[in-house]
Amino acid sequence: MFKIYIDPEVQKFILNLEPVTKAKIARNLDLLENFGYKLEMPHSKKISDTLFELRIRGQQEIRIFYCFHNEVIKLLHGFTKKSQKIPLKELRAAENKYKALTQYNL
């Protein structure tokens, strides 16, 4: 079983969502905590060698980028998905947080 660390910005993002969406996120986080690397579609998708996305489906399509770092799952960046493709801005934000995480060993 993995521990999950939620970046303060991601926590703020989640707290501002609708109650139904928050409940779905909590359920997906439980799955992620229990299955870790083995969690697959439709709940999780590998984006790059180091980044994954937690996929929350429903009225609001939510994506939360995460990584595995020092035996901990770190939620790096969350956003509301509005199109088929991942917006480059959102992907870059997650990549930058990952770089900071590994560079400064946070």
From TrEMBL:
Pfam families: Gp49 (PF05973). It comes from the Bacteria. InterPro entries: HigB-like, RelE/ParE_toxin_dom_sf. This is Addiction module toxin RelE. The lineage of its organism: Bacteria, Candidatus Doudnaibacteriota.
